[in-house]
Amino acid sequence: MGLIIHAPNVHQGGGRTLLNALLACADQSTCCVVDERMPTNKIDPGVVICSIKPTLIDRFKAEVLLAKNAKFGDTVLCFGNLPPLIKSPASVKVFLQNRYLFGKQDFSSFSIPTRLRLQLERWWFRTRMQVHYTIIVQSFTMQRELKKSLGFDSIVLPFSAAGTDQPDSGNHNIPETKEFDFVYVSSAEPHKNHAALLDAWAVLADQDVRPNLALTVSESSPVAQLIERSKNTHGLKITNFGTLQHGDVQSLYVNSKALIFPSKLESFGLPLLEAQQLGMPILAPELDYVRDVVEPSETFNADSPISIARAVMRHMNIENAKSKPICAAEFLARIQETGQA
């Protein structure tokens, strides 16, 4: 009896962070099938490592390898959202993190190759799940939506690389020496909602409010180009660090006063938990996935840049200008003054 961690398609983002934590805990009874881009230097030398190239052919070979080696009595942890392509007699646990694999989703903003990949993965997930497999999700919202969409049962078993230690209740004073007012740790997928966040920062700039914002978007993505255009057009104080390793992300948190998290769709929202563990104030949408994990300091409508901007101003204790009505007589007087002018 042994454990097989099957993750040939995990190499970036929150999945990489969590997989690194698992691999660091693996012992000599474990076999790990991983993307060759995953670092394995910190793994117990007794652990069997099978590195897979990120191609369709090699991904299929990884499925064949799993089918040949996973026996009855073994535990297979499929850490890349998808169950085994070939039915397995082992005790299979599927760790589901990708919200795009079920339910009604709008893929119009994705590239054609990404759309095709997602449609293939949705078919794979739906048709290859067996009744004796167990699906693991990270939130009760994910559990409810999966049941409603496909009728699949699941168990809620979240974990983080840092564990579950909570901050001291008084650990909320943010030193003024921190470089960034806000940080948003996220990749560049459309549902991460960077466009609305940048529009919100432009709304703030129109009111001469320019908080420092740190982002972690891949420099090769269209979002990175959008960030630069927004900075130049509106004079925004934004620094994009590109894709960071987990240790560098932690350093960025420490150097930031608050987390802003405008994502519209998450299976869990790992940065929310990481920020909470560091005692950081959190500004997030009023969405179910958020309150599955944390109680945010401020909430907003993720579809409204103005709502995001107002939440930022509330957090910064900046009064938002309100429209104050005047009486009818003053209204007429103002109109007459305007007409005479």
Low confidence ranges: 164-175
Structural class determined from secondary elements: alpha/beta
Q: In which range does the helix fraction lie?
A: 25-40%
Give the integer mean of the pLDDT values. Answer: 88
Please tell me what the overall shape is. Answer: elongated
Task: Give a brief description.
The protein has 341 residues and is α/β, with parallel strands linked by helices.
Describe this structure in words.
Helix content is 37%, strand content 16%. Strand 11, helix 8 and strand 12 form a beta-alpha-beta unit. With 341 residues, the protein is α/β, with parallel strands linked by helices. The protein has helices at residues 13-25, 56-69, 112-128, 140-150, 194-206, 222-234, 246-254, 270-277, 288-291, 305-315, 328-340; strands at 3-7, 30-35, 48-52, 75-78, 91-95, 134-137, 155-156, 180-184, 213-215, 238-240, 256-260, 282-285, 298-300. It has a 7-stranded parallel beta sheet. Mean pLDDT is 88; it is low at 164-175.
